[in-house]
Write a structure and sequence with these properties.
Layout: E1 30-38, E2 44-47, E3 54-65, E4 73-79, E5 82-83, E6 92-101, E7 104-116, E8 118-121, E9 132-139, E10 146-148, E11 159-171, E12 178-189, E13 199-204, E14 209-220
Antiparallel strand pairs: 1-14, 2-13, 3-9, 3-14, 4-5, 4-8, 4-13, 6-7, 6-12, 9-11, 10-11, 11-12
C-alpha cells in the first residue's frame, strides 16, 4: 500500500515500509561515533574515529581503577594509528582546574604547564584504587586544529591550537570523601604540522581499568 500523506495529528508505523528516497530535515546535532564497555582489565581504550566531518567532539564515561593501585586517566591524541608525542613535532598540553571535596567547600587549584603530551585527569591528584571516576571532556577543533596568528610571545610563530574543557567526580587518595572538579586545556602544536588528528587513546596512568564505559560523540558542523 502506497503511503501518500501523513496526517499532522498522528503517524501509524505498525506496518512494514520501504524508504527509497532521501529523508531531509533537522538532523541530530550530536552523533555517537564510538563506545567501549568492559568489566575486565584493560590498560587503555582507543577510538580511531576522528575525521574532518566534525570539528568538536565530546568524550564521556566512567572507569574503575585497579584495587590498591592509585591512578589517573591520561588522554593522548593519535595520528594515523600512533600516539602523538611531545616537542616540536608533537603537542604541549597546558591545563588548569579548580576542585573541591565534599568535606571542604573551599576550592583549590592545580595546573600543568605544558609538561605532558597527554591530558591528565585529575590534573595533579590521583584516583583512589578500586573507586569510580566519571568524566566529560569537550574538544574544540580536534581534527585539524585552529591556526593562530603571531602573538606577542617571545620568538612568535604560528601554532595549531586545540582548546577544550572538562569536568569529573571521583574519590581521591587524600580523603575518604569525594572530589569534583572542572578544568580547561590547550593543546599547542608549535610547528603547525598536526593537521590531521584521527583518534584519541584513554589510558590508565598507573594501573588498569577493571571496569569502564566510555563513549565518543561528534558535533555536526
Amino acid at each position: 500500500m502506497a503511503l501518500s500523506k501523513i496526517q499532522a495529528e498522528s503517524m501509524n508505523l505498525a506496518d512494514t515500509y520501504a524508504f527509497s528516497g532521501t529523508v531531509s530535515g533537522d538532523n541530530n546535532d550530536i552523533v555517537k561515533l564510538s563506545s567501549s564497555t568492559s568489566s575486565s582489565n584493560v590498560t587503555n581504550v582507543t577510538f580511531d574515529t576522528i575525521t574532518s566531518t566534525y570539528s568538536s567532539y565530546l568524550l564521556q564515561g566512567s572507569i574503575v581503577a585497579t584495587d590498591g593501585q592509585n591512578s589517573s586517566v591520561d588522554i593522548y591524541l593519535r595520528n594515523g594509528g600512533s600516539d602523538v608525542g611531545s616537542g616540536n613535532t608533537g603537542v604541549a598540553i597546558y591545563q588548569g582546574e579548580l576542585i573541591n571535596r565534599a568535606a571542604v567547600d573551599t576550592p583549590v587549584g592545580d595546573v600543568l604547564n605544558g609538561d605532558n603530551a597527554y591530558l591528565r585527569l585529575p590534573c595533579e591528584r590521583l584516583i583512589y584504587g578500586g573507586s569510580i571516576f566519571s568524566f566529560t571532556v569537550q574538544f574544540s577543533e580536534l581534527n585539524a586544529g585552529l591556526l593562530t596568528g603571531q602573538t606577542n610571545l617571545a620568538n612568535p610563530i604560528n601554532r595549531l591550537i586545540r582548546n577544550g574543557w572538562y569536568s569529573y567526580s571521583y574519590q581521591s587518595v587524600s580523603a575518604s570523601d569525594y572530589y569534583g572538579g572542572h578544568g580547561w586545556f590547550r593543546m599547542d602544536n608549535p610547528n603547525a604540522n598536526l593537521t590531521n588528528i584521527t583518534g584519541i587513546k584513554i589510558n590508565s596512568g598507573a594501573s588498569n581499568f577493571v571496569k569502564h564505559n566510555v563513549q565518543l560523540y561528534g558535533y555536526v558542523k
